[in-house]
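We modelled the chain as a single entity of 116 amino acids. Its sequence is:
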Amino acid sequence: MRMMDMIYWNPKKEKGMTRFHGDTESVVGEKLSSSPEKRVTTSESTKVAAPQVKIGADGRLVIDEESLVVEETATNESVWETVEEDRMLRKVTSLSFRNRMWRKGTAWTEKETELF
């Protein structure tokens, strides 16, 4: 059987995905009712980095001023790595790591130049 065949494969004995929807709803309901404190703390700990809108007393939409400022948590670990450049590092090129195939010779004398 190929992966393409599995798209259209529907075994007769399986009921399908409908049986999972009922199970998950009851499990979620039980989890929420058994630990309401955990649900509250998770909603408070997740903050969205976007302006939040509240409904005022007169029914108008009001932008929450506190949501416009993002508080940065003080962490020592940074995502970005600090790169320090030096003058010597700027002279490093791809040719710096190659083995030289030739050796620098000595200059020819005038007699050797004439013989050449």
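As a brief sanity check on the tokenised model: Residues 12-71 form one domain. Strands lie at 53-55, 61-63.
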